[in-house]
Design goal:
Shape: elongated
Largest sheet: 3 strands, antiparallel
Structural class: alpha+beta
Order of helices and strands: EEHEH
Number of helices: 2
Helix content: 40-55%
Strand content: 15-25%
Radius of gyration: 18 Å
Strand order of the largest sheet: 2-1-3
Distance between the termini: 39 Å
Number of strands: 3
Length: about 80
């Protein structure tokens, strides 16, 4: 999971599954709040060890079902 943090504003974004998502959020924040200038203390926070959220479990389940269905169809 990744979050954009602007040390200048004290803003921390919601969590994104990909780093690119957090970077995109940060880019929008810079253009909206700072005229495109990058604050010195901005960063992308990366962390793990958190339980997946409900939406992530659904994606995992769909992918697992598709893999199992593919293996079953190959076996038949």
């Amino acid at each position: 999971m990744h979050q954009y943090e602007c040390g200048n504003c004290g803003l921390r974004s919601e969590s994104f599954v990909t780093r690119k998502g957090a970077e995109k959020y940060g880019k929008g924040h810079r253009h909206e709040r700072h005229g495109g200038m990058a604050p010195i203390s901005e960063s992308i926070l990366t962390y793990s060890g958190q339980m997946p959220q409900a939406g992530e479990w659904k994606v995992f389940l769909i992918v697992a079902v598709l893999i199992v269905a593919g293996l079953i169809s190959k076996a038949l």
